Amino acid sequence: MLIEDSLKDRQTAITVPELAKMLTLSRRQLHKMAAANRIPNFKVGTSVRFDPGEIRPKAARVPWDAVAGGTES
């Protein structure tokens, strides 16, 4: 399943574990990307969330593994 299909009808914010699974990234990589503002995100208290409307347009054209910086440290 493509990420675009997963996000198509999504109306609620996406959690780090959910998006990490969709993008086949580790949660740690996704947290680093969010902290560096390399992926649109917002906070709910101390939790990071992602707006599907902001992720969807980028999903098809962004090589997420390259954005994440390859391997995690």
Explain the overall architecture:
The chain has 73 residues and is an alpha+beta fold. The chain is built from five helices and three strands, in the order H-E-H-H-E-E-H-H. It has helices spanning 3-7, 16-23, 27-35, 52-59, 64-67; strands at residues 14-15, 42-44, 47-50. Strands 1-3-2 form a three-stranded antiparallel β-sheet. Helix 2 (16-23) crosses helix 3. The longest helix is centred in the middle third of the chain and has 9 residues, at 27-35. The mean pLDDT is 81.
* Span between termini: 29 Å
Characterize the main sheet.
Answer: 3 strands, antiparallel
Kindly state the number of beta strands: 3
Based on CA inertia axes, which overall geometry fits?
A: globular
Keywords:
5 helices; alpha+beta; 73 residues; 12% strand
Short description:
Helix content is 47%, strand content 12%.
